[in-house]
Write a structure and sequence with these properties.
mainly alpha; 222 residues
Length: 222
């Protein structure tokens, strides 16, 4: 079921983007702020205590490696993981660099979802607005529909694939704590970046603040 839900999150994001493609979504900064706060809270409430239960002395190092990895991925994706797409609007070929960076990000997202329904919800809430932004950008950049659908289909497969790897490959099961710790670093970087970049001039306003508080509160009860 988790495989299907992760895939359907991308389908839902695409559907929302197509429905609002003419009007645009003015509330996108608030939606991003909510998703960032929700993902950050779920990571701190659920995944972080889980990895520290292992008493692995290198957890801090793995988390920093995750943060560093996400910084490297941001260099190639131009920040698409946290709601910014800066590839050329004149590009017509398949955006391979963007795809591979997002694919690695999405693949690693799938590992901590295993046997953790709260993280599943957190990843879905994070994924939907990112897909909306990607789809709207591809449409405005005049990418062909086939290119957009192929990109999103392959992207949709990556997180369920990560979940499958974590449950079916014995070698990866042995390294679950390091991999989940790296995922924590990725989530921390992405979610905090979303919080500070989802409003104009990086300033907080009341609506954004309420969106963040709502994200935190809901994550606590998930």
């Amino acid at each position: 079921m988790s495989y299907l839900l992760l895939f359907l999150a991308v389908v839902l994001g695409y559907g929302i983007a197509v429905f609002f493609q003419k009007k645009g979504i003015k509330q996108m900064p608030q939606i991003l702020a909510f998703s960032g706060a929700f993902l950050l809270s779920i990571t701190l409430f659920e995944l972080l205590p889980e990895v520290f239960e292992s008493e692995n002395e290198h957890i801090g190092l793995y988390i920093m490696l995750g943060i560093l990895l996400q910084i490297v991925l941001d260099f190639f994706s131009k920040g698409a993981e946290h709601g910014h797409v800066h590839i050329s609007t004149t590009q017509t070929s398949f955006p391979w660099l963007l795809f591979f960076s997002l694919a690695i990000h999405a693949l690693l997202e799938g590992f901590p979802v295993t046997h953790n329904e709260s993280m599943l919800v957190g990843v879905i809430v994070h994924k939907i607005p990112i897909v909306i932004i990607l789809t709207l950008f591809f449409q405005r950049a005049n990418f062909g529909r086939a290119t957009t659908l192929v990109f999103l289909f392959l992207f949709a497969c990556m997180t369920p694939l990560g979940t499958w790897f974590s449950t079916e490959i014995d070698l990866l099961k042995e390294y679950a704590v390091p991999i989940n710790s790296i995922a924590i670093g990725i989530f921390l970087h992405v979610s905090t970046t979303i919080l500070f970049e989802s409003s104009k001039d990086h300033k907080f306003n009341l609506v954004k603040l309420l969106s963040i508080i709502l994200g935190i509160v809901l994550a606590y009860f998930v």
